[in-house]
Amino acid sequence: MEQEQPQSPDTPLSVTLFAGLSDIELIRELWNHFPENMFLVRVESEDDFIMEAVNPAQKATLGAACEGRRLHDFLPRDTADAIWARYHECVVSDMPMRYQESATYFDPEGVECFGHWLTLLVPIHHHSHRVTHLFGISQDLTELQLAREALERQNQRLEARVAERTAELRAANDELQSLNARLEELATRDFLTSAYNRRHLESLAESELRRVDRSGAPLCMLMIDLDEFKQVNDALGHAAGDAVLRRVADTLRAELRDSDLLGRYGGDEFVIVLPDTRLEEALATAERLRHAVQASTQTTISLGVAQYQPGDIHLGELTQRADHQLLDAKRDGRNRIGIESM
């Protein structure tokens, strides 16, 4: 029987490998039909690598012309630099490596493409203690990566749309809350003068009475009526009368504190609640209001002043006393102030 001749140490590993595997059908079929890229790199030195053999799948990616050539001879510079660095690291460490890589390359037609791979790189020692070859398998992740990126873009668009819709809903909700607050405010105001309407003024005044009943703090009420207002309406019309009411309300409001409560009680009558105010202080306020209204509107007002007393269980008792003082002021000639005894 003819004895098999041993391979020379200088014989390329790919020749030795495939000669040895020629009778092993399974291995040959694996190399030829494996769907992922398989390649064998010859290590000339730590810094010099030659693509010695590639399987058909790799040839379909890069073309057969890559065999026997250095990386920079058939790959774009940036790609060749990145792969060279991986090969160098594997040779120096003498350990298998698994890593993901993304790279630009030229297909067999010379068209520049971009792909993603998961690569396993294994160092091989052939007739030497040093690493002479690198065996690699690269699983093509390009479609998976593209699908992942498309999904990420879709998610970003959805997130942007959700954020946009959320902002729209928040703005609409803020606008609705603002509108509701405005409607609630309008429901408490007299439409003509913007003073509190009678219902809301009485509600606020009742709350103040409960507060002063607990604390013992002073509180006064001013009942105000425009003098000869009917003559204004009769002579100049209701539009002129409305204008006078607005000017009077604006003047009163400008002279009051933030804590004071101004309301239109009906017709040409206004009520002011003065928290934390003694009777003599309320009289001074009434005088200031009387002069201010006459100066700014050429209209006179009469005022009744009453002070909260511990026996005032209901607002009506305080209101009735202030109204009596107002009637006294009008009987005394108008443009006057009626006040309870101090």
Automatic annotation (TrEMBL):
<dbReference type="GO" id="GO:0043709">
    <property type="term" value="P:cell adhesion involved in single-species biofilm formation"/>
</dbReference>
<protein>
    <recommendedName>
        <fullName>diguanylate cyclase</fullName>
        <ecNumber>2.7.7.65</ecNumber>
    </recommendedName>
</protein>
<dbReference type="InterPro" id="IPR050469">
    <property type="entry name" value="Diguanylate_Cyclase"/>
</dbReference>
<dbReference type="GO" id="GO:0052621">
    <property type="term" value="F:diguanylate cyclase activity"/>
</dbReference>
<dbReference type="InterPro" id="IPR029787">
    <property type="entry name" value="Nucleotide_cyclase"/>
</dbReference>
<dbReference type="InterPro" id="IPR043128">
    <property type="entry name" value="Rev_trsase/Diguanyl_cyclase"/>
</dbReference>
<dbReference type="InterPro" id="IPR013656">
    <property type="entry name" value="PAS_4"/>
</dbReference>
<dbReference type="GO" id="GO:1902201">
    <property type="term" value="P:negative regulation of bacterial-type flagellum-dependent cell motility"/>
</dbReference>
<feature type="domain" description="GGDEF">
    <location>
        <begin position="217"/>
        <end position="342"/>
    </location>
</feature>
<dbReference type="Pfam" id="PF08448">
    <property type="entry name" value="PAS_4"/>
</dbReference>
<dbReference type="GO" id="GO:0005886">
    <property type="term" value="C:plasma membrane"/>
</dbReference>
<dbReference type="Pfam" id="PF00990">
    <property type="entry name" value="GGDEF"/>
</dbReference>
<dbReference type="InterPro" id="IPR000160">
    <property type="entry name" value="GGDEF_dom"/>
</dbReference>
<dbReference type="InterPro" id="IPR035965">
    <property type="entry name" value="PAS-like_dom_sf"/>
</dbReference>
<keyword id="KW-0175">Coiled coil</keyword>
<feature type="coiled-coil region">
    <location>
        <begin position="141"/>
        <end position="189"/>
    </location>
</feature>
